Amino acid sequence: MNFPDTRDQALARLHKFVRHVGRYSSNRNHVIPHHGNVSCLSAAIRHRLLTEWEVAEAPLTHYAASTVEKFTQEVYWRTYWKGWLSLRPQVWDDYLEGIEEHPDAEEIRQGKGPVAVMNRFARELVETGYLHNHSRMWFAAYWVHVARLPWQLGAKFFQDHLLDFDPASNTLSWRWVAGLQTPGKTYLPRRTNIEKYVAPELLDPHGLELLENPNALMPGNVERPEVTRPSLPEVEVPSDGRVLWIHEEDLNPESSPLGAYRPSRIVVTGEFFGKSKIQKEWLKAALDDVAGRAGKHYDASVEQVDDLIAWVGGNGEAEIVAMRPEVGPLHDRLGSFNESGLKLSLVVRPEDRYLRSLARSGFFGFWKKLRSRMASGEFPASGQRELF
Ligand SMILES: Cc1cc2nc3c(=O)[nH]c(=O)nc-3n(C[C@H](O)[C@H](O)[C@H](O)COP(=O)(O)OP(=O)(O)OC[C@H]3O[C@@H](n4cnc5c(N)ncnc54)[C@H](O)[C@@H]3O)c2cc1C
Description:
The protein is mostly helical. Helices cover 44% and strands 5% of the residues.
């Protein structure tokens, strides 16, 4: 498998994949060798080598919007989760505080548990940094409801290996499987469902009897997390001449409001993503790619550095402009950046601000509103084409 790690590769994959999007809704759930039913673009989208609206628009060169609605919806699940968590950042803090090691977890992480297909998924995750969506759902459900391990520890296992690790999609999907995100609803790993959707050559039946009739582990009283951060600060793009900081949360500032900025110099970091070797390798290639693109686009010198604060200290630069990172490991460090005297101007894409405002309750309400904005041509503002 390969997971595009440059913008050109991601665009090439997107344009190849769009021809198959007409069959996406019937094929998507089937887990087959090499994952040809899905795009495998999640790492590129998550780190913004591509934007969601770019990906959503691409299939329209081949299909009517209604034919590819399922794909468009999936693309916007990411944006929805991101908006939902951004409105309630305490849910991320609670996840971090809840991570606690468990004596039975290592056996499952190493792919040495009693259910062979789950062992395959654990190994695939560690070896490739990717799992099909359905495999993620079954594995998470097995972890929580069958192995009876804490969901936070499972989410951390994914965090430490997925190339597309996304604080919102990961944390909230694990919460959903565990019955915390939609109170009263859990997701269970059922033998019949696995047999139906996993290609026979990938399915070793050993241990499937444990998934014959799994019992849901229902959480106790589930409270709906409140919106605690209703809006993000409005920051105008500052006048030209500051340092432009490009980081792992947005590797495509050229397509943002910072596209027209004229920085004095550019610094690229990827400090807070990547624990595993393959995560680090993926990110390194993507950072090299953005450094090359940004140097040409902005016609400015670019430095890749490991530690932003140390670089700032050594270079006497204090005023920096960047894309605002969303809730997650990099965002958690902003406080210490401010304390070190850094003056950061953090810019939000208008599309993100707008979609965040629609993510206050469930996905289908979000989608209904977004779909009608797309139909009227109101969204995306930069779109060349009307959806629906
Ligand atoms: C327990 C669990 C943990 C997950 N953790 C992550 C994570 O850390 N990072 C992450 O990017 N996704 C996560 N997902 C969502 C989803 O599984 C992946 O985005 C998807 O499998 C990526 O594969 P793809 O690019 O081939 O998707 P495709 O099917 O080709 O979909 C196209 C794009 O739509 C978006 N998308 C599709 N399905 C989802 C979904 N269910 N939720 C959010 N966005 C979606 C992705 O950007 C994806 O690249 C998780 C799902 C579960 C059940």
